[in-house]
Amino acid sequence: MFNIAYVGPHDYNEEQLIERLKSEPAATISIDTETISLKDRTCIGIGMALNPREAVYFPILPDESRYLDLCWELLSRPSTKVFCNALYDLYAMTEYRADGEQGGG
């Protein structure tokens, strides 16, 4: 299974992508959670658009990304956050954290 997915114009390897995410904060990020269904809000992954041409995805299920701590760090930065369905996405992420995330790296 993969730890992080990237869509965009660059050909980053995993190490380069992680360094980029840590060192170049985006002014605005768009966030979307992936869940099992609308009824079962079990969070299976978190996607973030960094700009109109780049996005990353952190899987949670079936195998949790070892970079999930970086995901939470990106979410906690003072950048502007854009959600399509904020209440649903925030609930899914909060429930995941409350249920005891396994931790990332």
UniProtKB/TrEMBL annotation:
What Pfam families has UniProt attached to this entry? DNA_pol_A_exo1
- Residue stretches spanning the membrane: none
Which intervals hold domain 3'-5' exonuclease? 14-95
Q: Which GO terms of the molecular function aspect are on file? A: 3'-5' exonuclease activity; nucleic acid binding
**Which example biological process does GO assign this protein?**
nucleobase-containing compound metabolic process
Q: Which InterPro entries match?
A: 3'-5'_exonuclease_dom (IPR002562), RNaseH-like_sf (IPR012337), RNaseH_sf (IPR036397)
In the UniProt record, the signal sequence range is: none
Listed name of the protein: 3'-5' exonuclease domain-containing protein
